[in-house]
UniProtKB/TrEMBL annotation, chains A, B:
<dbReference type="InterPro" id="IPR046335">
    <property type="entry name" value="LacI/GalR-like_sensor"/>
</dbReference>
<feature type="region of interest" description="Disordered">
    <location>
        <begin position="319"/>
        <end position="343"/>
    </location>
</feature>
<keyword id="KW-0805">Transcription regulation</keyword>
<dbReference type="InterPro" id="IPR010982">
    <property type="entry name" value="Lambda_DNA-bd_dom_sf"/>
</dbReference>
<dbReference type="InterPro" id="IPR000843">
    <property type="entry name" value="HTH_LacI"/>
</dbReference>
<keyword id="KW-0804">Transcription</keyword>
<dbReference type="Pfam" id="PF13377">
    <property type="entry name" value="Peripla_BP_3"/>
</dbReference>
<feature type="domain" description="HTH lacI-type">
    <location>
        <begin position="8"/>
        <end position="62"/>
    </location>
</feature>
<protein>
    <submittedName>
        <fullName>LacI family transcriptional regulator</fullName>
    </submittedName>
</protein>
<dbReference type="InterPro" id="IPR028082">
    <property type="entry name" value="Peripla_BP_I"/>
</dbReference>
<dbReference type="Pfam" id="PF00356">
    <property type="entry name" value="LacI"/>
</dbReference>
<dbReference type="GO" id="GO:0003700">
    <property type="term" value="F:DNA-binding transcription factor activity"/>
</dbReference>
<keyword id="KW-0238">DNA-binding</keyword>
<dbReference type="GO" id="GO:0000976">
    <property type="term" value="F:transcription cis-regulatory region binding"/>
</dbReference>
Length: 343, 343
DNA sequence: TTGAAAGCGCTAACAA
DNA sequence: TTGTTAGCGCTTTCAA
């Protein structure tokens, strides 16, 4: 599979423009030290030839890499695909390409992905998945990312990650509080929680917010049923099954993300439980489809695309002495899936 | 931003294992000509050091590239994110990483993305977006991809692309026929079509299937209202608005993908039009959420993840003398959004 | 079976 | 302002 000449190379451009390799390189990467006339000529030739820099060669030669790595738990989860869209659009504006890796919510896997990205000398690594709480492997990943940063690599994380890196922090705790507040305001007390696995910081933070808001109303979260399941649609469906079976008195379900809420709604529909009259359901994230469900889903909007875009923009900026932290807002989207508790 | 030593290099492994660079290289890429004992030792050392090959160096040195490019229209469209998940999982098994590019349904943009991938000497390019019908720029993209293949690059497309490359062909035409057949069987005659832009081969093929099935029943598709709009949720919402306003007699809407169907359902709900009793709605693709909508969406399932996986597997195989073509099946998923026409 | 050495295409000193 | 040249980390002849 020996690949021959496919794309034109810098030498081709240089020759044709009658300049040296160095000059051509400078002209094309817009560095100074080239006369405008020459620069323009080189660029014209490059365009004419359809020249695109070979990222491998550039990276290997120590130039600024034009690839960023994006690590998501699962790309076909709308939460992540919306983040990815944000990352990709910013990357595009900067002439950067995006390598996507699945961690599949497996810290071991995530470590391997990080190693690959580091070995490939990417410009930056965006970790979009939730952090893990107190996990050995996470520590290995952390060490790897820290080393990457020490040698000039840039890292930005989305979510709480116990990592000295720029971070976009989704407003998980306040979002949880807003949602709990909303349900309590509607008169709910028998609230069940469809939770993702509690080794995810996202889950922990959302629960913390819920706990705080409930405590303000004299409700102890530990008295409420909590079913821990996969942080996915099917996990939500399963959690709702168990809630119906084991805690039939519940009047509301807080699902810790929209995927789980969608699963819960499916289960409730299958059981003929009317939403919201018999059971309110709320989620987190406001994925695109949430507003189009029937009943439309009450949830807390997190600006996913913006989060992805911001994460990459941070990572592309010069590093600051201390990590930047950008908090997202959240917006309670009250829709049709939540209503007053039945008299 | 001069990056120092981050990841261990092959020399590090070689030194530590007490062998030459060449031997280490051979041992790690599993080529022959290395004694089993030595190979094992080298691999052990590599694992111990957490060594991962530098893809840039490998690619530049003429080794088989470990990156594939994936071009989608829009990653936060479930159709594409499910395809991407399939591609990524196969890539992972093969130790390959995936670069994702948005073409944003802009042929010009797509061309630029292809050029970048070619310049980066990727192992293969998977074009997941629909082809375009008779477009100048498409021709440029075609030329670029053909040249890439001529020099050993591998290309696989998903959809009809007028390109001499391995292809996964979604069963668009038969799917369209199945859906039209389904509606006619329910007694519908006043069928309106919410169509994506007709420069997409996907749209053209789905329409062809619909036309064929309708013709079998003596219905001329040209007599039916067709609203052309963006191939997205919002496009579907817009198309439904126009259908309601301009063709109030319609009893069914065929949306040419699920995203458009979801938009159409939203519009109908907003106008208080009951589905399916007043209006049936059907879509294409069977994105994950289709079954969880209320009413659940009647649609035609295309195995997106499998399509992505197959496309990459084809691209990774040795090229055959003639392009392979793998047809997907389709499966009519009759759900709650379609019903008999009201008496 | 192993090793030495020549590049892959580019950037970044260093020279002119 | 421009050109020359030494690598970046790897694979792959070619020799031993």
């Amino acid at each position: 599979m020996a690949r021959g000449r496919t794309a034109p190379r810098l030498v081709d451009v240089a020759e044709r423009a009658g300049v040296s390799l160095a000059t051509a390189s400078r002209a094309l990467s817009g560095r100074e030290g080239v006369s405008p006339a020459v620069a323009e000529r080189v660029q014209a030739v490059a365009a004419e030839l359809g020249y695109v820099v070979n990222a491998h060669a550039r990276s290997l030669a120590g130039g600024s890499a034009s690839i960023v790595g994006l690590i998501v738990h699962q790309i076909d989860d709308p939460y992540f695909s919306e983040i990815a869209a944000g990352v990709i659009s910013v990357a595009y504006e900067h002439g950067i390409t995006v390598q996507i890796c699945h961690s599949a919510r497996d810290p071991e896997n995530e470590l391997r992905q990080i190693r690959t990205l580091v070995a490939n000398n990417v410009r930056a690594i965006i970790v979009a998945g939730s952090g893990y709480v107190g996990d050995e492997v996470e520590t290995a990943a952390k060490r790897e990312l820290a080393a990457f940063q020490d040698t000039g690599g840039r890292v930005a994380v989305i979510g709480r990650h116990a990592l000295r890196a720029d971070a976009v922090l989704p407003d998980n705790e306040d979002a949880g509080a807003a949602l709990a507040e909303h349900l309590v305001g509607l008169g709910h007390r028998q609230i069940a929680i469809a939770s993702g696995t509690v080794n995810l910081t996202t889950v922990v933070d959302r629960l913390a917010g819920i706990e705080r808001a409930l405590a303000d109303h004299g409700i102890d979260i530990d008295d409420l049923p909590l079913v821990e399941a996969e942080f996915t649609r099917d996990g939500g469906a399963y959690a709702a099954e168990r809630i119906l079976a084991e805690h039939p008195g519940s009047t509301a379900i807080i699902a810790l993300n929209d995927a789980m809420a969608i699963g819960a709604l499916a289960t409730l529909r299958a059981h003929g439980v009317a939403v919201p009259s018999q059971m309110s359901v709320v989620g987190f994230d406001d994925v695109t489809v949430a507003a189009d469900l029937a009943p439309s889903l009450t949830t807390v909007r997190l600006p996913m695309a913006e989060m992805g875009a911001d994460a990459l923009m941070m990572a592309l900026k010069d590093p600051s002495s201390r990590p930047r932290r950008r908090h997202t807002g959240h917006e309670l989207m009250v829709r049709d899936s939540s209503g007053p508790v039945r008299a």
